[in-house]
Hints:
By secondary structure, this protein is α/β, with parallel strands linked by helices.
Amino acid sequence: MIDLHTHSLVSDGTATPTELIADAAAAGLEVVALTDHDTTAGWDEAARAARTYGVTLTPGIEISTRYRGVGVHLLAYLSDPEHAGLRAELTRIVQGREDRVPKMLARLRDLGIPATETALAEVAGASTITGRPHIADLLVRLGVVTGRDEAFARFLGEGGPAYVGRYAADLAMALGLVVDAGGVAVIAHPWGRGSAKVLDEQAIGELTEAGLSGLEVDHLDHDTAQRTELRAIADRSGLFVTGSSDHHGTGKVGHDLGCETTEPDVWRQIVALAAERGSPTVPIEPESRRRA
Length: 292
Ligand code: AMP
Ligand code: FE
Ligand code: FE
Ligand code: ZN
């Protein structure tokens, strides 16, 4: 089984990269991609764990982008982590994410909720990328809501009373950077949360010209009808179809490791394309086992 989209607590998952890889092995995965939001900070630890637990690691990033005013998550696989342009863009995104956190906490305090930076730091713990999911966890701890979903619905979602916008990379520019960094770009949950409005077949065609290689069709955000339609669009556009859990540990209910999977042949094509583009990043294969 191959699962190409997971998060550790380096971003907004709840397991360390090591625990995540151990969990992936226990779930029976042969290949797992670590795709923390806007960072490669978990790659090294995950690579060491992959060797230990006998899982093949595909290093990845889920990049926060914007297309026609709407947020779109872009999965980048096997890119060069040292590529200057991509690194600079990720730094800018992470900075924007961090800058807005104090502003959102202030809005919550205006609403009479004692959301302080100290309390947030306790909740976020070892995370290097603090974002809305951690503010949601704080609201849970304060007894204001019962879970992350309720926190987004009532306070933190776009248009919510504590929402503050942040910088995201232009999608076409991000595609260019990923390809230049030798990576392979796949749009995460293209028709989940809002992005269906802008990602029609024509847009997907244009993005394919800009360097897009695949669509994450099999994701819990998509129902059966959406999957059928997205699969047809991917076919006509010559794009890979992937499937993944978008696992966030206990931070996202129902997204168990391996609940959605990617075909081995598609994964091999992604690996081959990154190699063709000259990326120095390759899957980390455990000593005990060769290719899945
Ligand atoms: P941020 O990057 O700080 O804007 O937070 C975005 C992250 O919050 C996403 O990657 C999801 O993991 C999570 N998220 C976004 N919207 C929701 C929602 N409606 N319910 C639960 N989690 C969400
Ligand atoms: Fe997330
Ligand atoms: Fe996402
Ligand atoms: Zn994700």
